[in-house]
C-alpha cells in the first residue's frame, strides 16, 4: 500500500508558534511548547546531516535543547533575502547580534525603528507581516526537507510512525466557529460564501472608491451580494438589481456619481432579496483604489482600519432607527481579494478597529447605550478561518 503523506503543518499553527518565540525570545526556547517548530527542526537537522553545511548566518547557534529550533529560525530568516524585512525579523525574534536577552518590548521597538514607524503601528501592521513571512519560509523548509527527514528516520510511513510523527489526516472542518478573543469578546467565524449568511443585521461589502459594483457573474464579495440581493423571476431572469440601483442612488444623492470618494467611505443600502435570510443592511466600504491603465487595485491597510471604524460608527447611528435595533455585523477579510493584501495583512488592518469597538460597545452597553455589538467574520477557505482562530487565541499581550 502507498505510504500516507507526512504531517504538514498549517500556516496558522506555525505563525502562532513564531509569535510565542517573539514574546519569549530565543533564550527561553527550552520553556516553550512549540511542537510544529520542533517537528520541522527535526526534519531540517536530519537533512542537514546528509548535505553540505549551509553558509554561516549572522551569529552562531547554540547546541542546547532549543538549538535545533533556533537554527531553523535562523535559516528561515536568512531565506527572506536581506533588506528591512530580514533585519526587522532578526530584531523581533532576538536573532540579531547582541539581542538574545533583550525584553520583547525592546526588540519590538528596535524592529519598528527599522521601518521608521511608531511601536504601535508596527505592532498592528508590520509585525504581523514580518512574522507571517517567517512562517512562510518555515513552511518552505518543512516541504524542502521533509523527504530527507523521513529517510533519516527510517523511511516511509513506518519510519514516521515509529518516531511518533503524526500522519496527515483530513481535518473535520466546521462551517461556523465561535472564537474567544482577548477579554470576554467572542466572534462568530463563518466558513462559506457570503450569500449563505443568515440572521446577521449588517454585512460589509468591500468595493472600489467609485462604488462601481462588479458584474453579477464574478466571485468577489460585492458581486456575490449584488447577485444575491437582486429580484429574479421564476426562470432566474433579473427583475430588479436592487443593491446596485440603491448604491447608485446613494452616489447621486451625495454628488459622487462618476468620481472617486475617499478611501474608507461607507455607503449603506438595503439587503434587497437577502432580507428573506434575515440580512437587513449592506454597508459598502470603499477601500480599493483602481490603478490607472490597469485592471488592478491598491488597498492600503490604514484605509481598511479607518473604514471598519466608520462601519461601526454608521452602525451606531442607524441602530436605533430599526425595530429591533441593529446589533450584528459581518466582515470579510477586507482587501484580501484583488486588493492585494494577504489574509494576514487584512486581518491585521481590520482587527484593531474591531477590538476597539468591542471594548467601547461593552462600556456603552453597560450604560444602556448602543452596543455591545455581535461581530461575525466570513471567509471561504478553512485555512483562513484557522489563521483567524489562532491569531485571536494568541492575542495575549503587546509586550
Automatic annotation (TrEMBL):
<protein>
    <recommendedName>
        <fullName>Macro domain-containing protein</fullName>
    </recommendedName>
</protein>
<dbReference type="InterPro" id="IPR043472">
    <property type="entry name" value="Macro_dom-like"/>
</dbReference>
<feature type="domain" description="Macro">
    <location>
        <begin position="176"/>
        <end position="396"/>
    </location>
</feature>
<dbReference type="InterPro" id="IPR002589">
    <property type="entry name" value="Macro_dom"/>
</dbReference>
Amino acid at each position: 500500500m502507498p505510504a500516507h503523506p507526512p504531517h504538514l503543518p498549517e500556516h496558522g499553527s506555525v505563525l502562532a508558534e513564531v509569535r510565542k518565540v517573539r514574546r519569549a525570545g530565543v533564550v527561553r526556547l527550552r520553556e516553550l511548547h512549540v511542537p510544529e517548530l520542533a517537528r520541522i527542526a527535526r526534519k531540517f537537522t536530519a537533512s542537514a546531516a546528509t548535505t553540505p553545511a549551509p553558509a554561516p548566518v549572522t551569529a552562531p547557534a547554540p547546541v542546547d535543547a532549543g538549538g535545533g529550533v533556533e537554527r531553523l529560525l535562523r535559516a528561515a530568516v536568512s531565506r527572506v533575502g536581506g533588506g528591512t524585512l530580514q533585519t526587522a525579523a532578526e530584531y523581533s525574534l532576538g536573532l540579531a547580534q547582541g539581542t538574545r536577552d533583550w525584553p520583547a518590548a525592546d526588540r519590538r521597538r528596535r524592529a519598528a525603528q527599522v521601518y521608521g514607524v511608531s511601536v504601535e503601528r508596527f505592532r498592528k501592521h508590520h509585525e504581523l507581516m514580518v512574522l507571517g513571512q517567517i512562517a512562510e519560509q518555515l513552511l518552505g523548509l518543512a516541504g524542502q526537507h521533509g523527504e530527507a527527514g523521513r529517510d533519516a528516520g527510517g523511511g516511509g510511513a513506518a519510519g514516521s510512525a515509529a518516531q511518533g510523527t503524526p500522519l496527515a489526516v483530513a481535518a473535520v472542518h466546521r462551517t461556523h466557529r465561535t472564537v474567544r478573543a482577548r477579554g470576554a469578546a467572542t466572534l462568530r467565524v463563518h466558513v462559506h460564501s457570503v450569500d449563505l449568511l443568515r440572521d446577521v443585521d449588517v454585512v460589509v461589502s468591500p468595493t472600489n472608491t467609485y462604488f462601481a459594483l462588479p458584474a453579477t457573474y464574478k466571485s468577489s464579495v460585492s458581486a456575490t451580494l449584488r447577485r444575491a440581493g437582486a429580484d429574479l423571476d421564476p426562470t432566474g431572469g433579473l427583475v430588479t438589481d436592487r443593491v446596485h440601483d440603491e448604491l447608485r442612488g446613494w452616489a447621486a444623492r451625495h454628488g459622487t456619481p462618476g468620481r472617486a470618494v475617499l478611501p474608507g467611505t461607507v455607503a449603506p443600502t438595503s439587503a434587497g432579496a437577502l432580507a428573506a435570510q434575515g440580512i437587513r443592511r449592506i454597508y459598502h466600504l470603499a477601500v480599493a483604489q483602481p490603478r490607472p491603465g490597469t485592471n488592478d487595485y491598491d488597498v492600503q491597510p490604514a484605509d481598511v482600519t479607518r473604514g471598519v471604524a466608520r462601519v461601526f460608527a454608521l452602525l451606531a447611528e442607524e441602530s436605533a432607527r430599526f425595530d429591533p435595533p441593529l446589533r450584528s455585523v459581518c466582515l470579510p477579510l477586507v482587501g484580501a481579494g484583488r486588493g492585494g493584501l494577504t489574509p494576514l495583512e487584512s486581518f491585521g488592518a481590520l482587527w484593531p478597529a474591531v477590538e476597539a469597538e468591542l471594548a467601547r460597545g461593552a462600556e456603552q452597553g453597560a450604560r444602556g447605550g448602543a452596543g455591545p455589538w455581535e461581530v461575525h467574520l466570513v471567509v471561504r477557505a478553512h485555512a483562513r478561518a484557522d489563521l483567524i482562530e489562532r491569531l485571536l487565541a494568541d492575542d495575549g499581550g503587546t509586550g
